[in-house]
Amino acid sequence: MKVLVFQGSPRIGGNTDLLVDAFIDGLKETGNCKVEKINLYRQNIKPCIECGECEKDGQCVLKDDMKEIYPKLIDADVVVIASPIFFYNITSLTQALIERSQALWVRKYMLKISESANKPKYGIFMAVGATKGKRLFEGVIRVVKYFFDAIDADYVGGLFYRNVEKKGDIKNHAEALKEAFDLGVAISKNASPNTWPLNRSDSP
Ligand SMILES: Cc1cc2nc3c(=O)[nH]c(=O)nc-3n(C[C@H](O)[C@H](O)[C@H](O)COP(=O)(O)O)c2cc1C
Which numbered atom of ligand 1 lies nearest the CA of 170? Predict the structure, then answer.
């Protein structure tokens, strides 16, 4: 099982990063998973410039770190996007990653290229925010669902935490790190995705 994890906070050692690391610790429990964590703020990923070149052959012409990320997105069995909420949105580099998946959307919907060869791929989203707003995660869940569709992954749910603000606050959140760890363990045990301990609501 290949698990690709995108950590979308600029704050290394911050709440998203800690959540992701707890998840990865869980993934490592059984030795069944090959895990790669990519800190998006350490990557050079430009936003999509809408040049349309990918419509010819499904290849993005921009020269940056996405060159290495595209094959990883295609190859992964599980793709995880983790981002703090910035202005009710995902962070800029998480958005850049998502925009650049347009080349994969083109391959799937315009060029009808099947990348995954019927191999199931699953998408998980993790997000944290400082406020308590009931609808805090609604918009970003919609965005991320479209990303997973573009990369041919089934969105299976996520982990969402409110009231998490200062660096390290997530450690004071009674269940968060344990839930992330347990999710990693469930995946590493090859449990069926519909039993993974995730929040499956659109408005968690
Ligand atoms: C630029 C910026 C915008 C933010 N906007 C929101 C927001 O709209 N809603 C919210 O609940 N929290 C917002 N926050 C708070 C962060 O989501 C929160 O501090 C989070 O725990 C940061 O996670 P991190 O440590 O992984 O970076 C914002 C923080 C920053 C720096």
Answer: 21
Instruction: Return the pLDDT at 201.
Output: 96
Which of the residues in the chain have pLDDT under 70?
117
pLDDT value of position 118: 75
Residue 187 belongs to some domain of the structure = yes
pTM of the complete model = 0.98
Number of structural domains found in the chain = 1
Query: Residue with the nearest Cα to atom 14 of ligand 1?
Result: 86
Q: Which two tokens stand for residue 90?
A: 């995902």
Q: How far is the CA of 45 from the centre of ligand 1 (A)?
A: 21
136 Cβ inside 6 Å of ligand 1 = yes
The reply to whether ligand 1 has any atom less than 6 angstroms from the CB of 131 is: yes
- How does pLDDT run across 149-194, given as a tens digit for each residue? 999 999 999 999 999 999 999 999 989 999 999 999 999 999 999 9
Quote the domain boundaries for residue 115.
2-195
CATH code, domain carrying 177: 3.40.50.360
In a domain, residue 178? The reply is: yes
* Whether the Cβ atoms of residue 9 and residue 17 lie closer than 8 Å to each other: yes
Query: DSSP string covering 114-161, please?
Result: -SSTT---EEEEEEE-SS--TTTTHHHHHHHHHHHHHTT-EEEEEEEE
